[in-house]
Amino acid sequence: MAGRQVVWLKAEAPAKPAPGLPCNGCGVCCAAAPCPLSRLLLKHRAGPCPALEWEAPRYRCGLLRSPGHHLPRLPRWAEPLFRRLARRYLAIGHGCDSLATTEEDR
């Protein structure tokens, strides 16, 4: 089927919230495509973000959770500043901005 993408997520992950509702860690957006930060820093262009991490019962951004693991050249002292800037750049905490639909949405 054209225009359709399959992403694999843990069955325990929460269902994707509607756009604008608070993020619940469903992982759909990061599994469908890398965010601008992942594209810029990890040079990842398609498919699931390599920094998407499972921390039961939800997915988390590894760039925020463990930036030193994904960005080994980032000095440890700079991690708090990086986290703050990344949260702002990605508008984390401002609601779901993914327009992806899931089987549950149908």
Q: What fraction strand?
A: 5-15%
Largest sheet: 2 strands, antiparallel
Mean of the pLDDT scores?
88
Classification by helices and strands = alpha+beta
Terminal Cα span: 15 Å
**Count of separate DSSP helical elements:** 5
Characterize the structure shown.
The chain is α+β, with helices and mostly antiparallel strands and 106 residues long. It has a domain at 28-98. It is built from five helices and two strands, in the order ααββααα. It has helices at 28-32, 36-42, 62-65, 67-70, 79-89; strands at residues 52-55, 58-61. Strands 1-2 form a two-stranded antiparallel sheet. The longest helix has 11 residues, at 79-89. The two termini are 15 Å apart.
Secondary-structure map with pairings?
Layout: H1 28-32, H2 36-42, E1 52-55, E2 58-61, H3 62-65, H4 67-70, H5 79-89
Antiparallel strand pairs: 1-2
In brief:
The chain is built from five helices and two strands.
Notable characteristics:
single chain, 106 residues, alpha+beta, 29% helix
